[in-house]
Design goal:
With about 350 residues, the protein is of the alpha/beta class. The protein has helices at about 15-20, 35-45, 60-70, 85-90, 95-100, 115-125, 150-165, 175-185, 185-190, 225-235, 240-250, 255-275, 295-305, 330-340; strands at about 50-55, 75-80, 100-105, 135-140, 170-175, 200, 210-215, 290-295, 320. The mean pLDDT is about 95.
Length: about 350
């Protein structure tokens, strides 16, 4: 019963097999290899466009910080939700990589930005006021830190207002596949067609070993050289890029990443049903692969007694359970059995 995180799951066998195939003989360094070239062709098919540039990083934090550093000067800010991952869990990486840019935090239900408050702020702020820090980028997270999903239409609405205010749009897609699986949108509809300039496509949580892709769409691809220069300076230009690319190739091949996301989402729905059977309320609707349950302390104790791994105390008072591509029906059934048994202590 390991629901601690989708990063705790093992890498999918297809990923390991792809890395072994890449481990045959020499290959050009720093992304000039044939595997990385094939990934570009895959991304073009998946996102239905050839108008992009990309770079592969070993972590979501690196992907987010590098992406945002290309669009946020050190005297500007990034607007994001006050519970966004770049604020809560990345140890000031955005501020560090931008050389001083700050995060401008805004509220919203379920970790989704309140569009009206966002629009009102852009309407009233004075970009010429020297004492304030003007925004340069809007960053949305999909799925959010509450496991909720923005629809493609919602992303487009935010992007349209951001563009009117002269802001670039970044989408933190650490669980992008889970958001697509829930909303039914295509990768193109949820990204460049919705007005997203730069997407961090998370594959690590989906089933890769360590692979997140920064994708620059349309005019934003002009930032490609800067992105590579920043990656080099930050130590995120792997000499043997083919091993990162091999992971992406395996995940994108045949839509494996979306299949794995659908499985994780389906397991989360089944887990949520188990909680409801036991009259346990959920803090948020299950819109991806995360379940936030309002557990009684005795239920927490029982689950922990039986070895269940989960975040017992998540901000807001719930307990967080994360399903992955490797979550099994047996694990869900074990939760059901544990909740029904009496306390041992």
């Amino acid at each position: 019963m390991n629901f601690s995180s989708d990063t705790a799951a093992p890498a999918h066998p297809s990923v390991l097999e792809a890395m072994m195939r890449a481990n045959s003989g020499p290959a050009p360094s720093y992304g000039a290899d044939k595997v990385t070239a094939r990934v570009r062709a895959q991304l073009a098919r998946v996102f239905e466009t050839d108008d992009f540039d990309f770079w592969i990083t070993p972590s979501g934090t690196a992907a987010n910080a590098l992406a945002l550093s290309c669009f946020c000067p050190p005297i500007h800010s990034v607007i994001c939700h006050q519970e966004a991952h770049i604020q809560m869990d990345e140890r000031g990486a955005v501020e560090f990589f931008t050389g001083g840019g700050r995060l401008h935090l805004m509220p919203g239900e379920g970790a989704k930005l309140d569009h009206d408050l966002f629009a009102e702020y852009l309407l009233n702020y004075d970009p010429g006021f020297v004492h304030a820090t003007p925004p340069a980028v809007l960053s949305l997270t999909n799925l959010t830190e509450c496991g909720t999903a923005y629809s493609a239409d919602e992303v487009a609405r935010f992007a349209k207002r951001a563009n009117l205010g002269g802001l670039a749009v970044h989408l933190d897609g650490a669980r992008f596949g889970n958001a697509l699986a829930h909303t039914g949108a295509s990768p193109a509809q949820m990204s460049w067609q919705a007005g997203v300039d730069v997407l961090t496509l998370g594959l690590t949580k989906t089933g890769a070993l360590s692979c997140d892709v920064v994708i620059l769409f349309g005019q934003a691809k002009a930032k490609g050289k800067e992105l590579r220069a920043r990656a080099k300076r930050a130590g995120h230009m792997p000499a043997k890029m083919r091993f990162l690319a091999a992971q992406a190739e395996a995940m994108l091949e045949g839509g494996l990443w979306l299949d794995l996301s659908r499985h994780a989402n389906a397991m989360a729905q089944k887990l949520a049903a188990v909680f409801r059977e036991d009259s346990i309320e959920l803090a948020w609707d299950v819109q991806g692969n995360e379940v936030f349950a309002l557990l009684d302390p005795h239920d927490i104790d029982k689950l922990q007694e039986d070895g269940a791994a989960f975040y017992a105390e998540w901000p807001g008072g719930s307990s967080r359970f994360v399903c992955s591509w490797a979550t099994t029906e047996a694990e869900i059934e074990s939760v059901r059995e544990t909740l029904k048994r009496p306390m041992r202590k």
